[in-house]
Amino acid sequence: MSEKNIFKLTNLVKRFTKGKETLSIFEDLNLSIKEGDFVAIMGPSGSGKTTLLNMLGGVDQPTSGEVEFDGKGIEKLSENQLAKWRASNVGFIFQFYNLMPMLNAHRNVELPLLLTQLKSKERSQRVETALELVGLKDRAKHMPGELSGGQQQRVAIARAVVSDPKLLLCDEPTGDLDRQTADEILEMLQLLNREFGKTIIMVTHDPSAAKFANRVLHLDKGKFVEKELSL
Amino acid sequence: MNSFLSQSFAVIRMNLLSLPRRLWMSLAMIIASAVVVTILLAFLAMARGFEVTLKGAGSDDIAMFLRDGSAAELNSVLSKSQVDLIENAPGIAKDKTGVILSSELYVIVDGIKKTSQTAANIPLRGTSQTGIKMRQDFKLIKGRLFNTGTTEMIVGAGILRQFDGFELGKTIRFGKNKWQVVGVFSTGGNVFESELWSDYRVIQNLYNRGSSVQSIRAKLVEAGDIKQIKEYIKNDPRLNIDVETEADYFSAQGKSLNYMAIFGKVISSIMALGALAGALNTMYTSVADRSREIATLRTIGFSNSSAFVGTLFESLTLSALGGLLGALGAFLLFDGMSTSTLGGSFTQVVFSFELSQDLIVQGMKMALGIGLVSGFFPAWRAARMPVLTAFRTE
Asked: What residues in A contact B10, CB-CB < 8 Å?
């Protein structure tokens, strides 16, 4: 793990307004995450962990405060600038995999590469490598509906890493899987962190999943709190 | 390939591949567009067929003389002295026997329509050998020509198709007079095929027309050049006569069914509004159905314009399929269909629906218009889909 911060959040405020009511999610949240770290963010429902993940991924913007990625603020980028930033720097892994049901595994994994200038042959090679990494090279032609939940999540991981982003953001990546499959997925994330140096930020409810991270942050009522990891 | 193009192609591919999920709604949109196009093309093909039938009859090298102010042969009358004066007009071609000119009569008789078994007006034209020769497309397809001075007639192929009792060899009674069908002729599908032809002198006699005629056709020395003739008529006060080329005469007559095309366009535009409402619903449903996919792609880094293009393309594809289906339907149902309607002289004109390439293009434009409008607003919604939708739980 590097000593360099990949993320630095300063005085982050997020509020939602509904009618006359204003709901505060964070008030002056501060956080630094080192490059190459594997961070789990835990907390009860409504604690703001997914909102935080969305802001780290540039899919939601703070009410005020700064979100620095690699020393550059991303909180003021336009929607299209953020889309480009995500394409080059972030891989997303969702709880329900979010694969395109009409595309086979190969085509699903290829999607982020369509945003690059790579030629079709190079894209195919990269997709094969990514599918090999998650152990699904022989399932390249399978449609998502023909794969188990664990296999679909592995395809989603291959899609997240195929363009070689620095950062992986995982939203409850094992929330829809049984224990054994969940552990296999978490071991894969651990491998991507240790062997490939990916910075991983994972939101989870599950203390067993958080165990795989190097650092666990507990978010409660918009603030980080110290807490023992209890299994 | 350019990143925008590869993104757009990928989104278009995904949208089209996901169509089976929305099969019934997509089919409804295709069928609605198809019905609009079929109706539009039916009216346009009808109007076009009528126009072609009349225009095809007119020749540029024939001058047509009618009484001043007569819009059609039926309400024209020319005296023998006027005919004699016209024979001396300049610019009329001559052969060994003299000026090439045909005096003609045009009377209305009854025929029974095959489709409705009701009586309808058909024209009995009195003409001559010269008049027949002037119709360049004339072809005797059965029997022989009528003999001069007899009550023999030849029957146009269109009359034979649409009316009962005009078969070769039949004897027909119009009022007190009996006529014998001795031949069947074609004039290449134009309006003359909707007529019965006989000797004009016999008709003058049987219909008490004395020595008058209703129209004169004269071969021009130079095609389209009627300036000298007009000048000649203008300078002789006895000639209260209009002259124009036969092509111009029939072109004006052909436009009389233009209201059919306008009516068709109005009807299909009203129907298109209905189809548009259905298509908008289909496309909004499509965007809602694909909301998680659209948001996931946006999360990965796809641009919002690719979501816009993908949705618009889907809409255009469905409406284009509808347009093609509608054009095919119109082609199978109407193209070449023979029918008859009342022409400018209150007589039945037999014509065929004519579905030409340019009409199909008009139909496709209508279909694509439906696709464009019904796709634009849903595509705008797709482009503005919040990325956070991808993170919503099921």
From this structure: 111, 114
